[in-house]
Batch of 3 targets.
Target 1
Amino acid sequence: MLELLINGRVARVDVEPEMPLLWVLRDHLGLPGTKYGCGISACGACTVHLDGQAVRSCTLPVSAAQGKKITTIEGLSKNGLHPVQKAWIEHEVPQCGYCQTGMIMTTVALLEAHPHPTDAQIDEAVTNLCRCGTYARVRKAIHALAKS
Amino acid sequence: MTSVVSRRDFLKASAVLGGGFALEFSFPVLSRAVSGGPSTEVNAWIVIHPDDRVVIRIARSEMGQGTFTALAQLVAEELDCDWARVSAEYASPNENFRRNHVWGAMSTGGSRGVRTSQDYVRKAGASAREMLVTAAAEQWRVPAATCTVERGVITHHPSGRKLRYGQVAAAAAKLTPPKDVTLRDPKDWKIAGKPLHRLDIPDKVRGKPVFGVDVSLPGMLHASIAQCPVFGGKLASVDSRAAEQMRGVKKIVREESFVAVVADSWWRANEALKALVVQWDAGAYAHADNASVTAMLREGLDAKNLPQARKIGDTAAALQGAVKVVEVEYHSPYINHATLEPQTCTAWLKPEGFLDVWTSTQDGEASMIAASAASGLPLEKVEVHKMMLGGGFGRRGGPQDFVTQAVLIARAMPGVPVKLMWSRTEDMQHGFYRPASIVRMKAGLDEQGRPVALHSTVACPSILKVLRPQALPKDGVDPTAVRSLYDMPYTIPHQQVDYAMRNGHVPVGFWRAPGQQNAFYRECFIDELAAMAGQDPVAYRLAMLKAGDKNRLVLEAVTRAAGWGTPLPSGRYRGVAVADGFDSFTATVAEVSVDEKGEPRVHRVVIAIDSGYVVNPDTCRAQAESNVIFGLGSILYQENNLKNGSIVESNFNDFRLPQMAEMPVVETLLVPTGGFWGGHGEPAILALAPAVCNAIFQATGTRIRSLPLKHHDLQRHARLGDLAGVA
Ligand code: FES
Ligand code: FES
């Protein structure tokens, strides 16, 4: 049994220590907001927070997440609407939406580190892939959040 | 938490969760199941709750393009309800079969969502409105003409009495629908035409389980699949001894062209899949590669007596008599859709002989047919639950391969729901690719350098032949293969387009704006001719467009907005192109620079679109942005190469998608001129590649006759006619 601290709760799961955190979340803990896009840390759809840092959970063995605070999109805020999520609605960021939970988790971590990020900092931090092309709106929403 | 009930429950008008099973889905829900009190279906499209909530049923699939919202806006506009109380849900494919296609076509592609259903969805709204007003008037015993509606409240003016839609919906539903309704003039629109917030976004930012991959059912198992790497090949043998011993593994499913592992989590299934020792019978195409595809297409180019897609005047004679003849070849590689959500389908063969399927599909009815065929069950025993799509772009419409596979796997696990999800590598290597093509264009010019004749020969696989053979015209000319050439708006007096259908073994499919490669070829070639004639590329094009041609209007609009002819920051160059498709007209100006290392960068893209009408300007703009980034990936990097009969690329490391840093500024001018309905999902991609490549010519003097750009050495100039990029 592994013990994990997810979204402020303790969860116990009986899985292989090498199973990537992504699959523990999706298939064993019923938290499907974190997505699979590539499985090789290339797309960012699986981004979660580990002690507040954005990490790609598809290549992170669950054992490496033990003892750390794991936050997923489902636990980002109590009422389900973090300021970043609100900005995403306001600026109509998502299209298909598949990449967006990862995009939001990345942005939350970026704004924690840099409340007023420059375009270069955004480019460097937000390397998530979006096949639908929502990048312009992601940037706009981040700048709007930095202002508020 | 909301619930889903099956169609069979849905049929019981009074059913409230009757016999259904509770699931944690946000979409799709059938409204009756979740209503607090009895809701009323006023007509097939509109369900009204006693508390005035309005649920609008959407037949088309939502894959990011915004159709869920735009179609709801059109219905709500005519219905005159309170938009704040509107939600949308998918109409059930099974119900559509059963109710004589009351929701029309469900297939979602070709940018058709709004343009081909606007008429009947608006009529549904108007008809329901009339029935609701009539019901109120009957209750008051007054003429309906003395009543007005605002935001779902009916007022009888002489008396000031009011009734809400929720109060009269049940009575309205019993009335006979009016035979004829008058639709509102778009200039009077209050809900349609406005940049309203999309209905699907709040759930998507919360990470609610709305996608096909999110399906979760009691006792559900997971499957990962390996298909024969060579298209058309077969499974020869599988040694599954090691895999069977692995944790969580329940079953190895062997089918003709694939093997799948079923386990209690997807990761375990996929790990066990990797542990299989599989032998494939690759079949006839084991040695196909880029060179064999090129040879196949090239043979087509030179073939005699090809079917003609267009013939105006006498091209051969005009070429003979021309002052100068210019001949070029352009080509494009295969490209995968690479939807971010991989192909997925959940199937559950129930003990009572029913089959339930959940999937991300662009065509729920095609999914039903595929599921029925794979299971051997009649259609009425098959229930398809449409989910939100994590991207579609044409991949999830025709093929339905993922549905067939999921059902075959479920057959091996009767009574147990199994969710199949493809790995990214499977998705990359088993697509229905944008066809590779080569086009030869020959132009005859007069003394002023104007084309008097244009002869194009297209060598390209046929998408219709693969996906919809019954729709292929008798002459064998697939319109998607000759788009932008056979319907070219330029007034060149002699035109001929020949089509050589050369199919090969790589499956091809509808990739966003099918046939768009031709817009790249045509608009770059026209640019070459303008440069040879020493003319401005805009003026050169305008001279060949009839007065009043909408291509002309968007070209003029875009050049004005882009500041065509005005100075640019140092190192930046402009290119222009115009193209129409999907009943819309678009023109694009791209601003590009090429740095000292030869790296191209697209800084700004200005697009003008005339779609006749605009239902939601914000989602239309979002679609233009989407087309730019989707197109940019194919311009800069993307190609699927072939080796040993298989696709070489395996993931996003070798099939690159542009990132945030590469997103240009996109300015979209919506210039609807009215009188027709054009699409928005695809048109804006048409003129992008040529506008970018024409700007690169300005920047480097290099003509780009093939994509992606990564094969061109822009630093050293000119590798004209190079074939490295052909798949
Ligand atoms: S799924 Fe983890 S980065 Fe793509
Ligand atoms: S919104 Fe579709 S992949 Fe980003």
Target 2
Amino acid sequence: MPIYNKKTLSRLLNGELSWKELKPIIGGKKDPERFDMVLEILQEKVPWNETILIPLHEHLFVVSKDNKRIVKCECGYEFGDYKENWKKKCRIRVRDTEDDIGDLYPKYMGCDPEWEELREFYCPSCFTLLDTETVPPGYPVIFNFLPDIDTFYEKWLGKDAPDR
Amino acid sequence: MNTKPIGWEKSSLNEMLQKSEKLIEDTGRYYGLEKLSLKKDNPFRYERAYASLRGALVTARETALHIAASPIVKEIGELCFALYTPEGDSLVVSTGILVHVHTMSEAIKFMIREDYEQDPGINPGDIFLNNDPQTGNVHTTDVQTLIPIFWDDELIGWAGGVTHQVDAGGITPGHDLVAAIQRFDDGMYYTCRKIGSNDAIWKDHMINARRSVRTPLYWELDEKCRLAGNLMIRDAVLEFIKQEGIDYYKKFIREAIEEGRLILQKRVKERLIPGRYRAAAFFDLPLKEEAWQPRAKVNKLTNEPLEIYVKEDGTLSLDFEGCSGPGPNPMNCGIGAMEGGQWVLLTQVLIYGDKVNDGAYFGVQKNYPLGSWCNPGDPYLSYQSPWGNLIPAYTAMMKCISYGLFSRGYREEVIPGYGFTGDAIQGGGIYSSGPLEGDRWALSTFEISGQGLGASAVRDGLDWGYAMWNPESDLGDVETWELFQGGIPYLSRKIKPNTAGHGKYRGGANYAGVAMIANSEDVDFFGARDGLVFHGAGGMHGGYPHSTGYRLIAKNTNMKDIIDKQEEYPIEDADPSNGQFEKLLQADITRKPWASIYPVMLENYDMVHFAMSGGPGYGDPLERKLESVKKDLDEGIYTPDLVFNIYGVVADYDHNKGEWFINQEATEERKKEIRKERKEKSMSFDEFFEYEKSKLTKSELSAPVKLMYSESLGLSEKWRKEFIEFWNLPENFQMEGK
Ligand SMILES: [Zn+2]
């Protein structure tokens, strides 16, 4: 049974655990405290003070700010209401030519732009690549995940969300 | 005609099924069980009971596979067994190709609803065979044997076994045909047929079956393998009842399934977050140039959107609203296949290790829209290779569940998807000399069980080691495949560069093979894989999808000369734009940007290249650790040009040491340059909106994209509404597609 202390979990989040350490974590029973401990680690890591409600992404968090729930990047950029798709605030690069796709994939090994394009969504502040979409041209932007925050805290964790 | 019902308490099987379904509908719990009283009263007896049945099923599989002759079954274990309730709900399963556990459940229910109890009758010792996707199966290639289990006069359950055939007698040789476009091309259809009694397969059936497929020996021995496994299971169940009593058994089978259902709910609450999840996958089937049949000459792009709700009570709902339509191609998918694919993945990501059974099936609500590719409602279409749509579609489920796992903190469990189980090269020929002269060989390498798995949020994906349909995937040994398909020996098997999806953590990588036709005549060859679009729902959190497949064949080669002179020949296609084939061979070389092809005829010394699939990546590639990039270069996973473009890493090869060295300073610079390029080449959402919308309104779309939109918009009012709202299009917006 692995020991889920803060140090182990920090190393897990940083991708520092060896396979020998990771395997029992994947194979074993899950630690029910994981969510709270990860939240604590992430809260210490981010360079701002708003309370994290849900870690949404490697770099994005649903946080509480002035009684509103917004999506915020690790770099500090605020994407607004978490019920809106944060991708609509991103800078977007559309790779829809053979040349642009050819920068990433060898000939024959990428998509045909007549059939599919590759979209890159960047944070407008730190320009981290936050998401890619490989979709036919004209496809609506996909809203990946809309968490039901209050049900999660109240019904599943048996406590109020930190901002309630 | 039976006068006495074979169900419990003098009811018919159909009445039992209706009662069971009503109890679930009314209470939400399997058989309306409010508590697990056997487990509560004596947990040791209960767990021992489960373990003994589970052990019996695993033993049956391990023993039975030695009866089979087909290398797919024998070598890599493409078979599985399950034990069902009288109503057809699985309670215990073996190991193996678990995708079929729920498909057999649908087949049993079909027989019950069709009142097989009256006609043709269900008696002790009867044997039933099914391979019809419309009555609970994936495709004709997967063949199921089902036997009833009786205690006194009552039917107390069913044993079922499935094997994957090398050939099912379809329009061309093979197990996943590309050229099948209607039911009549799919091969032999056994729609829940009684094929034996008194534990023996009828002679007339076997004569018919042997004459209906190209590999009669494999077919016959596989039938015996499945029957033997089923008989072992029946013996074990009867022994179990002698030990534990029939009353215990009857209660136990209900409880084991309800526990399975509760486990799914518990796991969902333990690992996910309630809310709405969305992803979309795609698959290409460009048959315009490939198809022989005029009606099949269509370039088809399949839309496979998925919306999942994780609900307050820990149940899931899966909605495939928006899926595009079926077509004159083999990749239409019946509900049995959809259920099977879903179930096998849920057992891998949420309910592994405990009571793996149909309980998980009852914990998931689903919508497969009628008329779409995932529920065409037309038995006369071809369902010969539904995998083409099914495999990519369920990457969307994996991605959705991974968003939840990530947010909950279980980053080690994240898997955004997996490689397509291709390149499924197939075909066959006849030995032209030697001891096997005149015998037929079938090409059906199942090394497709070794694909790249997606990266997790904490480490790289598994290389060449995953198949979505078999949790125990194993790519087998080249030597074994060669034994069975001796007309196409391997010339090489080598890591193929740039197959792995890019990311902070890269997807699993893969290899490619080169093979040559030898000592044969009358050789057919074809294959199936993604080619013009990325397979599945792509990478996650900034990771990229793995690369697509393509087709490379060399005909009329000078390989005989090369071999005679002991000269160099191509063993890879590392850089498709500057290929070894072109450099080292005199030949007619065909390269197609798509990978799914109709059969072509090959001659001795013709050569084929076939690449396995990588897995999707996770996270921004600029965040990948430099030592990991160095390792990728050293191992040939990526080439330096792409590492420069995507990871921003500048590296030099030290010929003396035989390894790559990263130039730290130049790398820093290059990463800055990439960030600058991201700024310069990107647009705001408003600009993006106008740019993309104009593609729709100016009708700049290609025929397959138009066809896809016209089908999805026509089939789903919900999808149409969102589409129109998203792009702010007029209410009467139409897209013409053909
Ligand atoms: Zn940022």
Target 3
Amino acid sequence: MFITIRNLTKSFKKGPNLITPLQNLSLEAPRGEFLALMGPSGSGKTTLLNLIAGIDSPTSGDLMIDDHDVARLSRAQLTKWRSRHVGYIFQLYHLVPILSAFENVELPLLLMPLSRSERRARADAALDLVGLSDRAQHRPPELSGGQEQRVAIARAIVHDPELLVADEPTGDLDGESARSILALLTSLSQDHGKTIVMVTHDPKAAAVANRVLHLEKGQLVNPPATPASAVS
Amino acid sequence: MKLLILALKNITRHRLRSLLTMAGVAAGMFLFTAVETTQHSLAKVTQASADDTTLIVYRENRFCPATSRLPEHYLPTIRRIEGVREVIPIQIAVNNCGASLDVITFRGVPAEDLRKYNPDLVVIAGSYENWIKRSDAALVGETFAQRRGLKIGDKFEAVGINVHVAGIIKSKESQDNNVAYVHLPFLQQASNIGLGTVTQFNVKVASSDLLDPIAKAIDETFRSDSQPTVTRPEKAFFAETAKQMIELIDFTRWLGLGAVAAVLGLVANAVLLIVRARVKETAILQTLGFSRLQIASLVSFEGILLGLLGGAIGVISAYLFFHWQSFTLGNEGLTLAITPSPTILLKGLLVALLLGLLASLYPAWRTSRQPVVQSLSQ
Ligand SMILES: Nc1ncnc2c1ncn2[C@@H]1O[C@H](COP(=O)(O)OP(=O)(O)OP(=O)(O)O)[C@@H](O)[C@H]1O
Ligand SMILES: [Mg+2]
């Protein structure tokens, strides 16, 4: 299994109260699977995604990704692990506004021992893959939302991570742009073997995934309906 | 290196704010450099060093060139004292005996002796021979000439003395660059002192460790004479007679310190504003895998760049300011020329860099510790 999660619990102290957005959650996913994560607001989707992406650590339980014991890594080790193995795609793209599309995509490569020309080649290839070679020198404010998200996807894949996580990647896009982003993600999983975990509120988006998981109050529940019937 | 470029791009983000910060840093560092330059120039003329060999023989209990009168015939007696290399009698006329910003000093010397006394003297315009030939001729120090806008052939009048500029000189001894040398008898007559009387003798000794014993020997020689002397090294003489001026200049070190504190606060404030406005973006970089050290470096680089760029503007403009605009403070015939030095320039740049670093240490540390998840959802 590429992702193995057992009895994963995450709780926060909020004043005197203990909030537990994730409780004893278990889950497995093979390499290359495209997983969609649905559930009502506050059900713990982002919390789970952040644990899988290694930007947060669980309170208890196991989290193995590609044989890395992610739950036991220190903060510094997690940072290093992320820079090599994870690509994160945000709902609001989060590009650096003063950098060009190319420079944004190049950012993760600055952390690797690469020459300038190697970085250039890789960033160009990533931009090419998302179909934005002709916008390399544009800055985020000069791009449409759909284009920004594609630059963000290029940034997430430029260092060739095995795992992509996406938190409502189409949540802020119109239907047309959303469809092209979903097609891109599908191709990344099918043609490039990326394992993808995508949080979404949109059943149409969830429908492109291989499997849809439903989260409620921090626990996985049996799907109320199959993805196919959810679309209709 | 890559982080440095990123930091450079970051400070162009709020162009106006960065420029204002740098302008403030520049003003502070200008002040700092001005103070340092003054202190440094003062130290050069008052702090004894191993290659000092000049003594000044003055009339005992007299503290102004106008009242110090010594008989010229002391000259051969002083010259015979063991260890004395050269002696020159000097009559001094100044426009202002106390501390003054625009001091004009005439030094009357025996024309044929000046070169022998000071072989380092270089005539950069006009000629030494013309000076010797003409009785009302003056050899004007470079700084003096620059300040007064004097050229060869000019006539000028000061302290009731009319002279003709025959040459412009430059010397390693800073005092020479601030005075006008005229013929001794000419000055004695023009200032109504009368022939045979001088203000002081300047004595060159063989080495700096002879300064004190020879000073004692000279004073001993004339102790029971009608005009007893007091002899001191030139720098000690300056330090003693210009006490008030030195105290005033010493006080300016607090201004320099204040300027440094202001720069520190300014940069720290700018960097704090920068990181506050960029909490989320920093979280994105952290998500991409930027380490704590890299995040902290990025913030520090921005502070250092603000400090160094603003500092460079301030320090270099202060350097040029003192280079083009000559300032001299005078007291009792000795002048303090405030001259810029490359050492101070480097020191200023280094201080600016360190201030930038120091100002960003705390913001950098805090930013690198910010929790990723909470920062992302801000
Ligand atoms: N850092 C935190 N500190 C305290 N509570 C938190 C923190 N992060 C999340 N929570 C709480 O955990 C619960 C789950 O939050 P989470 O963001 O995972 O929900 P979500 O399913 O992503 O919701 P949405 O669909 O609105 O994005 C919420 O009640 C939230 O308030
Ligand atoms: Mg969420």
